[in-house]
């Protein structure tokens, strides 16, 4: 059996903020990436034509997209995202990826995984279901299909002092769990579960604090948070279920807005 042709990216070092520990927040650390891609077809017969091969840029771009998607706590989640980006290219059949932290200990800490086409949620897999983000600020019927519900601010006093933005985000998380309970829907706080729900065409409630806590400049109000998610996930539109006396917000975005309820 012939071995597949392969493409490599080796010892690619990038600084990024990542990690679950408090000591890793607010600071960058060096990450080393090694990727090996098994090509779906051999390179025989490409006639030295760059348009007929898998470009090395696909690998470096996948790393950049993964790091730019959100702040990750786990190397495993980052590696899954990068693998999905690579396997979104039709000339990639399998990818082996290693991601290592270089600044935690004198050596390297990391993860290695191998993914084949069909085992990951590449972006076009999510595109099979039209994604709608729904800001649940007023009671509307329980949705079906690929809908991610974001919570309204809870109508409760919020403690003052300390990091008020983080407290407000945690209050939105509480509202998300309450909403999930009322509608009998699962609640997710990470991109991996959200992508899975979209792929499966299932509604899900989003608890935003984990994904948004470290996003600079993002206000901790329900509309800003919902719009951020809609833009980040490439939603087809943002539905706003608002009280009847509430005005439609004046925001600048390419995401279509629709008032419902």
Automatic annotation (TrEMBL):
Residues 7-115 form the Dihydroneopterin aldolase/epimerase domain. It comes from the Bacteria. The keyword Lyase applies. InterPro entries: Dihydroneopterin_aldolase, FolB_dom, GTP-CH-I_C/QueF. This is dihydroneopterin aldolase. The keyword Lyase applies. Pfam families: FolB. Transmembrane segments: none annotated. The lineage of its organism: Bacteria, Pseudomonadati, Pseudomonadota, Alphaproteobacteria, Rhodobacterales. One of its GO terms (biological process) is folic acid biosynthetic process. One of its GO terms (cellular component) is cytoplasm. Pathway: Cofactor biosynthesis; tetrahydrofolate biosynthesis; 2-amino-4-hydroxy-6-hydroxymethyl-7,8-dihydropteridine diphosphate from 7,8-dihydroneopterin triphosphate: step 3/4. One of its GO terms (molecular function) is dihydroneopterin aldolase activity. Keywords: Folate biosynthesis, Lyase. Its EC number is 4.1.2.25. It catalyses: 7,8-dihydroneopterin = 6-hydroxymethyl-7,8-dihydropterin + glycolaldehyde. Belongs to the DHNA family.
């Amino acid at each position: 059996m012939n071995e597949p042709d392969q493409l490599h990216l080796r010892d690619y070092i990038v600084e990024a903020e990542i990690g679950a520990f408090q000591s890793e927040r607010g600071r960058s650390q060096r990450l080393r990436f090694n990727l090996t891609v098994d090509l779906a077809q051999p390179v025989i017969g490409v006639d030295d034509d760059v348009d007929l091969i898998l470009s090395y840029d696909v690998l470096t771009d996948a790393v950049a997209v993964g790091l730019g998607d959100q702040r990750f706590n786990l190397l495993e989640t980052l590696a899954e995202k990068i693998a999905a980006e690579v396997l979104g290219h039709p000339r990639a059949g399998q990818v082996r990826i290693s991601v290592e932290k270089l600044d935690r200990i004198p050596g390297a800490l990391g993860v290695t995984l191998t993914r084949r086409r069909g085992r990951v949620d590449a972006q076009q897999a999510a595109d099979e279901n039209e994604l709608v983000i729904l800001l649940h600020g007023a009671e509307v019927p329980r949705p079906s299909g690929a809908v991610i519900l974001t919570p309204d601010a809870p109508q409760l006093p919020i403690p003052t002092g300390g990091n008020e933005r983080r407290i407000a985000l945690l209050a939105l998380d509480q509202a998300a769990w309450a909403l999930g309970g009322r509608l009998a829907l699962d609640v997710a706080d990470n991109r991996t579960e959200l992508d899975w729900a979209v792929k499966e065409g299932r509604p899900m409630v989003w608890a935003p604090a984990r994904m948004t806590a470290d996003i600079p400049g993002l206000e901790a109000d329900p509309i800003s948070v919902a719009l951020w998610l809609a833009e980040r996930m490439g939603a087809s539109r943002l539905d706003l279920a608002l009280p009847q006396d509430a005005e439609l917000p004046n925001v600048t975005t390419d995401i279509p807005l629709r008032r419902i309820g």
